[in-house]
Amino acid sequence: MTALPPLGQPPARTDEVTDQYEHGREMLGVEHRLDAVDLVQLDDDTMELNMGPQHPSTHGVLRLVLDIDGEMVRECRPDIGYLHTGFEKDFERHTYQQCIPYTDRMDYLSPLFNNLGFSLAVERLLGVEVPLRGQYLRVIMCELCRIASHLIWYGTSALDLGATTPFIYAWRDREKLLDINELVSGVRMHTSFIRVGGLMADVPDDFYDLVTDVVKTFPRLIDEHELLITKNPIFRDRTVGLGVISAEDAMAYGASGPVLRGSGIAYDLRKADPYSSYDHFDFDIPVGRRGDVYDRYLVRMQEMRESVRIIDQALNNLPDGPVNTSDRRVAMPPRNELNTSMESLIYHFKLVTEGMRTPAGEVYQAVESPRGELGFYIVSDGSNRPYRCKVRAPAFSNLSALPHMVRNELIADVVAVIGSIDILLGDVDR
Amino acid sequence: MSGARAADLLESELPGIVKRRAEAYGETTVWLDRERLVDACKLLRDHRDGQYRMPLFVTAVDWPEREPEEPRFDIVYQLRSLQYNDVCRLIVQVPEDDARVPSLERVFAGMDWHEREAYDLLGIDFAGHHGLRRLLLPDDWEGHPLRKDYVSFGEPVAFTHNLEWALPEAERPPELPGESR
To answer: Which residues of B touch A (CB under 8 A)?
Structure first.
């Protein structure tokens, strides 16, 4: 054994060491590599890195092509479409009722908003008004769905940053909300509960107890979630000042929802263009200031509390009466009428076999989904199916602002920014 | 009444630009020529009475039967003004053999992806777009699925009564089984 030299000094050049050294250089090709490195060129030489589509933090199948310079992202090119299913084409050859289950599967974490947006658009074409009880129940179910969707976002985006605990807690609480979905519609996720002209059915009696339980327990549970993360120094170090987008840029990219509100614009369609009697309820629009990842986080956490407030008011003031419109061209007649009324039987038969015919025309109806402005642009030619239905997906526009947000950030932070946009590839690709 | 603000603004600031306006379901639609689309959008974006700074989407609606009386494609732009809480709709009509409109990606950054999607699914050419490639479908996809003449489902199934229609000559069995059916 040769004795180790003091630190900072080259090894003594015995013949044995020199041989080993030379041999090592040959083996490793060090000589060759040193010649090849051109330090001047390294400065503006970027490497292309492929992230996804199977990357766990891309929340589905999103592929990003990153031009990186060392650890810095110089350019980001999202490649989407891996989950494209052609729902818009499917709409064109299905009747309006048959389209509802398709809408569930677009933004599959907040299916009720898709149901609602589509139903509202068709109802406007038909000129149908849903009774107040139906509208209030729609609001309750949608706000429950918003909390469930935000919980998933909260759990997964924290998991992307290395926090495993919130993920488990978020799933625990979301179960309670899915139980309500199951109770009212029989299905936990793709409920198709909101239909054109009203709802699938009125809610059972247990519904009140379960929702009251949510209203009572969730403020405390959300506190619990916040306790885990909001003041966590690691989380704050990773997110404050990251992925900033100004209000002006957010608008130019068509970003909406928490991304827009995180940048300081208090624009919420529930206030700006109240649909389904949202104007009956008192709630606030949480707004961020800096437009960074942390502000978007704060906005969403606060939104969950506001949703609980809305649910509380809607449940306490829930009117009696029917949930479906009495217009028999649109909603199914009650089952007991079929035994006694010939007209009801005919309407039932026409609805099931032929569907409803809308007058020719075009409408654009937007709702505030957990991700932002979800719009349905429906063109009707007077038949029983949409001639063209364009879905304005919120996550699509929000994701198009991603390259702007991650430019000149670190690779590791791209993950945090994706989480903060709350993309859902089912919504982006449709 | 959403969209009336934009229509009024266009009529007063750029006379003659509005070819037609119609109102239905509380929404005003404005028809424009494609030559003046960029001017109109810049005006709507920058004018202090408009402030339509948020692009909602661009898409096209295919009406193949109405050619040649009217152009085949309606290209639909939907813009939102947060300041005035208003949505406006602009429609540009283009014929099948020249399905081209100027790109708006320099007016609204967010139009980039929407235009690529409309190119991908409907084959509309957005002149001046920096990289008009397919967005949702694979690069080697043939056709534009949201066109009405795109055959998107079903494949011919061979029965004895429709062999000539269902199968190419070479794949047909030489003799049909059975006498008659």
So the answer is: 24-25, 27, 29, 53-57, 59, 61-62, 76, 78, 80, 82, 85, 87, 89, 108-110, 112-114, 121, 134-138, 145-146, 152-153
In 3D space, the residue among A294, A287, A241 whose CA is nearest the CA of residue A264 turns out to be A287
Q: Is residue B165 part of a domain?
A: no
> SS3 of B38, please?
helix
Q: Is the Cβ of A227 closer than 8 Å to some Cβ of chain B?
A: no
- Cis amide prior to A274 (ω within 30 degrees): no
Structural domain including B102 reads 4-143
Cα separation, A416 vs A412, in Å, equals 7
* Residues of B with Cβ-Cβ distance to A265 under 8 angstroms: 82
Output the CA angle B134-B140-B141, nearest 5 degrees.
75
Q: Would strands B27-32 and B20-24 be described as parallel, antiparallel, or unpaired? A: antiparallel
Contacts of A388 in chain B (CB under 8 A): 59, 61-62, 146
Cβ–Cβ contact A21 with B under 8 A? no
CB-CB contact of B88 with B21 (8 Å)? no
The CATH number of the domain holding residue B12 is: 3.30.460.80
Is B9 among the domain residues?
yes
pLDDT in tens, chain A (430 residues): 445 555 555 555 555 555 555 555 555 444 444 333 333 344 567 788 888 787 777 777 888 888 888 888 888 888 888 889 889 988 988 899 999 999 998 888 889 999 999 999 999 999 899 999 999 999 999 999 999 999 999 999 888 888 888 899 999 999 999 999 999 999 888 888 999 988 988 899 999 999 999 999 999 999 988 888 888 888 888 888 888 898 888 999 999 999 999 998 889 999 888 888 898 999 999 998 888 899 999 999 999 999 999 999 999 999 998 888 888 888 888 888 888 989 889 989 988 888 888 899 999 999 999 999 999 999 999 888 999 999 999 999 999 999 999 888 888 888 889 888 888 888 888 8
Domain membership flag for residue B180: no
CA distance A199 to A188: 16
Q: Across A342-387, where does the E strand assignment appear? A: 361-369, 372-380
| Of A152, A113, A189, the residue nearest A419 (C-alpha) | A152
DSSP string, A26-82: HHHTHHHHHHH--HHHHHT--EEEEE-SS-GGGSSS-EEEEEEETTEEEEEEEE--T
Q: In this complex, which of A252, A375, A379 lies closest to B53 when CB atoms are compared? A: A252
- List A residues 229-268 in contact with B (Cβ-Cβ < 8 A): 248-249, 251-256, 265, 267
State the total domains in chain B: 1
Interatomic CA distance for residues A97 and A253, integer angstroms: 33
Is this model's pTM higher than 0.90 or not? Answer: no
Domain locations along chain A: 87-429
Helix residue ranges per DSSP H, A288-386: 293-316, 335-338, 342-353
Residues of B in contact with A273 (CB under 8 A): 85
B102 lies in a domain? yes
Q: Indicate the fold that domain A87-429 takes in CATH.
A: Cytochrome-c3 Hydrogenase; chain B (1.10.645)
ipTM score:
0.84
